[in-house]
Write a structure and sequence with these properties.
Its cofactor is Zn(2+). With 351 residues, this protein is of the alpha+beta class. It has seven helices and 22 strands. It binds zinc ion.
Length: 351
């Protein structure tokens, strides 16, 4: 394993940011290569500790000569967001300098060609970080971007072009659900990882061996040693299933038995009132149409001071908020419905 340091110059004199990149050289140029990054939203740490648990497994494979494809690992992809504390609270989702989400605004290239990337020295520090991360990842067959939700199941976002070919990956990782999408106008990292291949001939794009996914490793509080260990095993199984690592002790993944649904089936349930949220459901619950999802206490102690929110359709609760304070119009949860949501959103679900 080789370690190198990437450096992003800050937007003012005397400020710069650094993050390590860990690389393993594969022995077989024809084998699939893999890129893993975590904490693009800098405070989302379940993927960081999963990578920490994965590294000894990769080092053992390397010592035993079992690494076939090149592997690039960026355990903490966002040193800018990592340093952002605002009145004592960490803010790792948006760049404070530009108010831009760290997982939006990636360049959507017409082809997987690094020369099409913007000038790596222009733009604000967060834009230059995005260009650098894309440059590090481009050309890998497998690109995994490890995030987490507020409170939630383990699930993947996958572009429709990669499904069901990626079902083996979902099974290997042991996630609960897969959300399929087909439109990215905002430039997520995942979108920037798959878009360059969408207009290529099928024999060049090779969707049968390509992987690009945003991995949502449950909730932001699910930073846990046991979960990190099982997630690392899931990542390892994926790398073995796709031939990046050789491990004859592992069997091929079975079929994926979790929930698979298009993005348009998700109901985000905007809150009708502001107040304190009392949830009646949790991630993983199956709900019927009309089931009580949550009660919002907006005028405590007063007649009519509570407003109930009901399921618009049957489905599975995928996520809910980690905080219990809510403003009117903010989303209460993600309900993966059995059919298209009347409030279906295209592109990204959240800001
Ligand atoms: Zn995230």
């Amino acid at each position: 394993m080789q370690k190198s340091i990437e450096r992003i110059v800050g937007d003012s004199e005397g400020v710069s940011y650094e993050f390590p990149v860990l690389r393993f050289d594969g022995s077989d140029k024809a084998a699939s290569s893999a890129y893993l990054q975590a904490a693009l939203h800098a405070g989302e740490l379940p993927g960081v500790v999963a990578i920490d648990a994965l590294m000894p497994m990769l080092e053992k494979a390397e010592a035993e000569g079992r690494i076939k494809g090149n592997i690039t690992v960026v355990p903490q992809a966002n040193p800018i967001g990592r340093a952002q504390y605002h009145f004592g609270e960490h803010q790792g989702r948006f760049h404070l300098g530009t108010r831009t989400n760290f997982n939006r605004g990636f360049p959507l290239l017409a082809a997987p060609d690094p020369t099409l990337l913007p000038d790596a020295t222009s733009g604000t520090a967060d834009q230059r970080l995005k260009t650098r991360l894309l440059l590090l990842s481009i050309g890998h067959d497998i690109v995994l971007d490890l995030h987490c939700d507020d409170e939630g199941l383990a699930y993947l976002y996958v572009h429709t072009s990669l499904w069901p070919a990626m079902a083996d990956c979902a099974a290997a990782m042991g996630v609960d659900a897969v959300i399929l999408w087909d439109e990215d106008t905002d430039g997520t990292f995942e979108g920037a990882s798959i878009t360059p291949y969408l207009n290529l001939p099928a024999d060049v794009a090779r969707f049968d061996r390509r992987v690009a996914t945003t991995v949502e490793y449950r909730g932001i509080l699910d930073v846990d040693g046991a979960l990190a260990g099982s997630d690392a095993e899931g990542l390892y199984r994926l790398l073995v299933a796709r031939g990046v690592i050789l491990d004859q002790a592992l069997s091929t993944p079975g079929s994926f038995t979790g929930v698979v649904a298009p993005l348009e089936n998700i109901d985000m349930m905007p809150a009708p009132r502001a107040g304190a949220v009392l949830y009646d459901v949790k991630p993983g619950d199956r709900v019927a149409k009309g089931a009580l999802l949550a009660t919002i206490v907006h005028a405590p102690g007063e007649a009519g001071g509570r407003t109930q929110v009901f399921a618009p359709q049957a489905g599975i609760i995928l996520t809910r908020r980690s905080r219990r304070i809510i403003r009117a119009g903010e989303d209460l949860l993600k309900l993966v419905g059995d059919s298209k949501s009347a409030d279906a959103r295209s592109g990204t679900l959240e800001d």
